Amino acid sequence: MLLVCLASGTAVLFCALRWVPKLRQMLYKRYQSNVEYVHNLLEYMHKPVSVLLCRLMVAVSALLTGGLLATVSWRLGPIAGMVIGFGGVYLGWHLPAWFVKWMKWRWVRQLDAQLVDGLTLISNGLRAGRSPLQAFDLAQKEMPPPFSAEIKLVLEENLLGSSLETALEHMIQRVPNQDLSIAVNAFTILRETGGNLSETFDTIVATIVGRKKVEGKIRSLTAQGVSQGIILIAMPFVLAYVLNVVNPDYMRPLFNTLIGWILLLFMVLMLLAGGLMIRKIVKIDV
What we know:
mainly alpha; 11 helices; 87% helix; elongated
């Protein structure tokens, strides 16, 4: 029965795509934009991956997620299984993009963690009498990626004819980091007006270290609120699963009737609103 319903649902989707050109074009454009987004983010993190592999990744993720959710939720009823299965296809379609976006966020966090050591190394190189290019080359050789990868790209742009200031401007356009932007702008201004670059970098490093201490204290104070929000949002889903395992007849009307689906939608909207409110309360910018 499960295979028959999945096959019929796939046939209906195929016919819709075959006979409705606008729907097919819309889905193809969304698919292409999703693949390009994944490919561009991987290139942004200096991880060269072919476009063909990105397309395969998005397609396989959509099919596997949809099939898995449909199989798991089939005990709730054929209609609920098909709806959740198609929802799983949509979810799996976007999973690679979300995963790569999380990788980018983690990559930027790693660069931010390395920024103090990198700027200190550049400052020490300038204080030792090296030129700015030599100091940047020292940081590129001594620091691990991603900081070294970005500095290497700056030096390569400089070798290809761009000025050091222009290459650094391109770096802060690629990397959304406020501290790095301040350091690059200070370096550019002092190169034009004159000044002690090493002392300026030391001041920027001290400012970054002080701000990170304040951010760590705020993060520790708001950790309890974050954990409480996660527990409160996850509790209805865990409780619904437990009740469905213990007494499936009691929970079946929630998934097989219109009123049940309305209540589920209302629950999800209320959980989203509560999660956004908790996030607004615990998120404090420094």
